[in-house]
Amino acid sequence: MAILSLGLTVIFGIAPLIYCIFLPELAWICVPAILLCAISLIIGLIGLISEMIKDKASRLSCCSLVFSIGVIFLLCGIISNNEGRPSERARRIACMGNLKQIHLALQQYAMDYDDNFPPANGAAGLEYLRKYNYLTDYAVYVCSSTKTALGKDKQPLTEETVDYVYVGGLNEKSDQKSPVLYDKPRNHEDFGNVLFADGTVSNFIGKNWTEKIKK
Predict the structure, then answer these.
(1) Mind spelling out the 3-state secondary structure of the chain?
(2) Is-above-0.90 flag for pTM?
């Protein structure tokens, strides 16, 4: 029975543990794993009590119990560490959503200004959207993968409160594959979302992903 307990712990504890270490977004796997490890713990306890008179079996049961308890605490720690934190994949998708919202605001701006987008580069260009009420939500200008503080109280947008690089001076007639807006390199690790003039958002992967953007 001690061998059964140890086997169950290895099967139902180690595999999810490996997944959670290398794929944190799969931390939910830990929940059933903890239940199954608890079952193996009970089996091991029963085995320990029933085999106390056999020294070798008793030692094996004790090892199984200690191993089971260790795996349970480790899995609980992983769940606690990841609780409430969206995965990087989810943050990248949210980032794409920000770019698309900004693009809609740019289109609305262009309708009022002869098909032209804001002329200034960087945060100064995006400030046109906020200042003239095309997009006033400060959160849209910030990537969820960063710890950038949101602007407040109608403060102008600055490079410190904006996580995207805006290319000013374009218009609705510009090359449709011209980049209009993209992640600052610090936003994601070896990854970036890019908004093009035609409204499409593409992602680029690699340490030098910014060099792949058509200038």
Answers:
(1) CHHHHHHHHHHHHHHHHHHHHHCHHHHHHHHHHHHHHHHHHHHHHHHHHHCCCCHHHHHHHHHHHHHHHHHHHHHHHHHHHHCCCCCHHHHHHHHHHHHHHHHHHHHHHHHHCCCECCCCCHHHHHHHHHHCCCCCCHHHHCCCCCCCCCCCCCCCCCCCCCCEEECCCCECCCCCCCEEEEECCCCCCCEEEEEECCCCEEEEECCCHHHHCCC
(2) no
